Amino acid sequence: MSELIRKNASELVDLLSSGEVSSVEVTQAHIDRTAAVDSAVHSYLHVSPESALATAAEIDRKRAAGEKLHPLAGLPIAVKDNLTTTDAPTTAGSKILEGWIPQYDATVVRKIREAGMPILGKTNLDEFAMGSSTEFSAYGPSKNPWDLTRIPGGSGGGSSSAVASFQAPIAFGSDTGGSIRFPAAVTGTVGIKPTYGAVSRYGLIALASSLDQVGPVSRNVLDAALLQDLIGGHDPHDSTSLPESLGSMVEAAKRQDVKGLRVGVIKELNGEGFQAGVKARFNESLRLLEAAGAEIVEVSCPSFEYAIAAYYLILPAEASSNLAKFDSVRFGLRKAPDGNPTIERVMAATREAGFGPEVKRRIILGTYALSSGYYDAYYGSAQKVRTLIQRDFAAAFAKADVLASPTAPTTAFKLGEKLEDPLAMYLNDIATIPANLAGIPGISIPNGLADEDGLPVGIQLLAPAREDSRLYQVGAALETMHEEQWGKRMIDFAPELEVR
Amino acid sequence: MSELTPDLVRHLAGLARILVTDEEVNRLTEQLSLIVDSVATVNAAVAGDVPATSHPIPMANVFREDVVEPSLTQAEALSGAPESAEGRFKVAAILDEE
Hints:
The complex is a heterodimer.
Chain A lengths: L8 H9 L5 H19 L2 E4 L1 H16 L12 E4 L26 H9 L3 E5 L33 H8 L5 E5 L6 H7 L2 E4 L20 E5 L2 H11 L17 H7 L6 E5 L9 H16 L3 E5 L7 H16 L20 H12 L2 H13 L6 H24 L2 E5 L15 H5 L6 H6 L3 E8 L6 E7 L5 H19 L14
Parallel strand pairs in A: 2-3, 7-8, 7-9
Antiparallel strand pairs in A: 1-3, 4-6, 5-6, 5-10, 9-11, 10-11
Helix pairs in contact in A: 2-3, 7-8, 8-16, 10-12, 10-13
Chain B lengths: L5 H10 L6 H18 L2 H4 L28 H5 L5 E2 L2 E2 L9
Antiparallel strand pairs in B: 1-2
Helix pairs in contact in B: 1-2
């Protein structure tokens, strides 16, 4: 197996731009890796080796001709399958969209194409990104490369497992309540949910429009910064896109200074329900930051107690509306009952056949939360909780420059363990959901292995809206301290996968 | 306890245009009742006069420049349709025959 696949994206970028390796070599190495391991890991729903190699060859030709290229030109990438691509099926992990070829590229996809990044394939996810494990994908779950009997996190477990198993140096995720950060935590990778509106959502199949955000998945903080600098910025196709630039994340990741920085520890996210090994690693990282000159302060966010409840009203409400477009008319599945049914009966039969159990649960829950007579008590109250959570963050950020918590209460659980218990599944996102409700950015970086099970643990850092650069600065600093301590990257502790 | 009953769940599924069997209605009623009881705690959180937040970063009146841009052709727009005819989406009857 080529050693190229183990390199960080930023290292590959340097090798590509100096001409030491070609994009075809790098791309082919990842295609070979997928052929060798993906029957076991199942990161991809669709692979596109021919078009990836064609892009790579084109970039190599341009580079040889001395053309000016984007810094990321030639670096292959994996794309979560809820982002539209005109040359590959886009299913969102659902049977209702099986085989659908979109007529337009998502803005982030257009940007990676313009930069000359070969697209390796489309990665697995829980159906319409509803889930924390990929077990709700209609096409079967992805597996955690650290232990193939465990979940790779969700919804973006396809992207996290692809990056963790060296099938892609970098990938796209989308984060509505933790779908980038939770998979990153349990697979020993880096995941970032940018500020709401920092990256265009155009072409992202919407789950909950006021919460969704596209972001990078990588093995290194600098790698993620390279991608956010490419995909960030205003997009006239997304009316919620921020008009202003947030500056260079790459510069922030290279700055790596935490002296005098105030790190707020969220009291409510480090206690009951958190696994011992998760807490131990978290406290060790706080001490590292302190030793490097950061000031650790405690902050309290009392309304976080209601965050999951508010989230599971707002998300289903928005999702029930967003998913109404899957109606058997313009795209996707159509299933007509026998006889001469009306369109209403065709729609109901199509949605019965095309949606899985979690999607149905959430659509019906959202329909309930929005229905007359219940609206104020449920959706209305949830929106007020959202205000309280924003106020908690505002108060916390008055005392601290960044906030810190474990990314998730536990390490990766076993496949099947929480499948029949929706409420237990929802609790995985207790630390990640508040950031989506408030629209602020969050990063999860590798934070060591839990003593009790030897599985990856993540640490989450949060910053005020538009201050994404702080996450890259502090995240990269902590990553460097960790790697000095460990003598290698955390991903290098992962067991070798059996190759086919 | 939530007010979810099998009849209400069947009604909600109908509003959401999802065909459900009796067995599914029973399972959904049980699961959704647990979820609704859990999420109903939001009521306890908002006793005072708290404004609602619908959007994390508020923006108003967002328009793009009023210039003509390329859009999908008719054939492209119809390309994903399960059925089309004469350049249009073809669907089943909207009204019952009776």
